[in-house]
Write a structure and sequence with these properties.
0% strand, elongated
Amino acid sequence: MARVARLELSESDDACLRAIVKKGSDWRERERAETILLLASGASVNSIAEQQKLCREAVRIRRRKWLESGLASLPDQPRSGAPSKLADEHRERIQQWVETEALSSRDILSRLKEKYQIEMSATTLRTELKRLGFVWKRTRYSLKKARCRTLRTSPARHSGIDRPSECGRN
């Protein structure tokens, strides 16, 4: 079996890879950096694949990409997909609407349709709002809490009558 030549890393690349392995925010980047460091230490493709629970071809691909583009090979590349339904000007307008008044997703969708002739699903709108930094929460009303407040403020409560309330308090 032919042995692949050991990767030669510069001191700056080695330091950068070690920093990514230690403190990188993306687990994929950390794993790729660790693979490159192991290849540079002279470990075989088979041992690295076994240690990192990868197939041998994945280790070879990481090595090839490292040789082609260096540190730029570590982060995920942009993936294909449908183009965004909203332009930046639409996002800015939605942000203005939401910041000035409380709107439901239906209200925002109807405004988008009226003013810009844009149709999208409520799920897509919520995704866009999350990208803008908004948190989408459903309002919950508790009838139990309202009932407890009325029982506590009822006249029988203040008249000295001692009866158990529905809220679990005397």
